[in-house]
Amino acid sequence: MFNIFYHNHFYISLRKYNIINYIMVTGMYVIIVGGGRVGLNLSQSLIREGINVTIIESEYSKSEEIAEQTDAMVIHGDATSIQVLEDADINDADVFVAATGKDSINLLASVLCQNYENVTKIIARVNDLAHVNAFKKVGIDITVSPESTVAAYLERVITRPKVADLIVLGRGTTELLDLRIENSQLYGKPVLEYSPTENYIVCAVYEDGELVIPQKDTVFHQNQKISVLSKADYVKEVTKFFAP
């Protein structure tokens, strides 16, 4: 499990020779900056989903520590360095997450990633609410949450790209999703033919930007936004049904 690359000394573990294959095996590739509790927990959650992950960590000792705790590739280096980002194969990344405890690092690293068109989602952790506007001004997706819930929220954001927005309710047993209708078999069909079920309910649809509570004559339209209350265990199934 010791997969660590020390950028400042160009020391590469034996598994360096398998990096490319490791990254390109299947699906999504995510780069996480910061190997603290949030970054480590997020990497472990994503790896369980079969997603390839690299962590960039600036502290030498922490790099060694987290390399022993995760199957992610770990790079010791400064994520605000373009060279370090490219050593992490930023050109192949789909998602970039800046999750350090320092807003200045998260902001600068995120801005640098905007130069790479292949990165479809950039998420930055904001530690000080006074800095939120700075992130908004440069167009960065923002996550502001207590540390204990950040990793779980980010994992949902990354692994459910069809979900426009998501709110976890209660003790995590229910989730409110905003989705876009992409299942052509639903176009023109009455909403109430498909909702409610024992696992989900379509709470609202949006017509001409207005929220509408589904009635007998309410039908689904292509790319229509809907709000769905779903049991947490069925979120993937619900998302696949409405937005395959």
Element-level helix/strand string: EEHEHEHEHEHEHEHEEEEEH
Give the DSSP E fraction (strand runs of 2 or more residues): 25-35%
Distance between the termini: 35 Å
Number of domains: 2
- CATH architecture name of the largest domain: 3-Layer(aba) Sandwich
Structural class assignment: alpha/beta
Q: pLDDT under 50 segments (min length 5)?
A: 1-26, 144-148, 163-171
C-alpha-based Rg, rounded: 20 Å
Overall form: elongated
Number of strands: 13
CATH topology of the largest domain: Rossmann fold
Summarize the structure.
This protein has 244 residues and is of the alpha/beta class.
Description of the structure:
The protein is α/β, with parallel strands linked by helices and 244 residues long. It has two domains: 4-159, Rossmann fold (3-Layer(aba) Sandwich); 165-242, Alpha-Beta Plaits. It has helices at residues 19-24, 37-48, 60-67, 82-87, 103-113, 132-137, 147-159, 235-242; strands at residues 4-6, 11-12, 29-33, 52-57, 73-76, 95-98, 121-125, 141-143, 165-169, 174-180, 200-207, 210-212, 225-231. The chain has an eight-stranded mixed beta sheet with strand order 2-1-5-4-3-6-7-8, sandwiched between helices.
Which features characterize this protein?
5-stranded antiparallel β-sheet; 244 residues; 8-stranded mixed β-sheet; disordered N terminus; Alpha-Beta Plaits; 29% helix; alpha/beta; Rossmann fold; 2 domains
Strands, helices and their partners?
Layout (H helix, E strand, L loop, with lengths): L3 E3 L4 E2 L6 H6 L4 E5 L3 H12 L3 E6 L2 H8 L5 E4 L5 H6 L7 E4 L4 H11 L7 E5 L6 H6 L3 E3 L3 H13 L5 E5 L4 E7 L19 E8 L2 E3 L12 E7 L3 H8 L2
Helix pairs in contact: 2-7
